[in-house]
Amino acid sequence: MRERITLTLPDGSKVPALLHAQGKTGNDAAVPLPPIAVKIGERWGWHFPARTWQQRCDWIKDIAKGAGLVREWDDRLITGGKVVHNWRPICEVISTHTARHTAGTLLKQVSNGNKALAKLVLGHADEDVTDRYAKDKARLLAPAVLDAWRKVLGEWYDGEPVQ
Fold this sequence. Notes:
It is a single chain. By secondary structure, the protein is α+β, with helices and mostly antiparallel strands. It has a domain at about 1-50. It has seven helices and seven strands, in the order E-E-E-H-H-E-E-E-E-H-H-H-H-H. The mean pLDDT is about 75.
């Protein structure tokens, strides 16, 4: 984070945002903040405990374990063109990078597939990279697919097949 700024929206309203340089592109990005993020920032005086990447990941793993996130997860690897299954408790797999994937997926999901939002927040130069973070899973898309079929088929959607 470089600095907090205020963004003026098209309707004239103002919202708090963080201005930061995106690591890979070097471009500035202003990311609007939800009210809860502002409250957290204010509570900490916008000075958060400095931690290394490894310390943050260890801290997240400890919190996940304490919260009971011990369900097995297949943290599979691809080695030599073959999938190698690596079943471990979620609390051992979760990390700051997991949070990036989740954020990308959720942003894309709630914005009706708008990759630009996830691209801005994650700081990617290429939407193909964002697609790797923001996964479209069949179960998430199933309601939209069924709704599309309902529109295409109309009254035949629930009808009986012709003999």
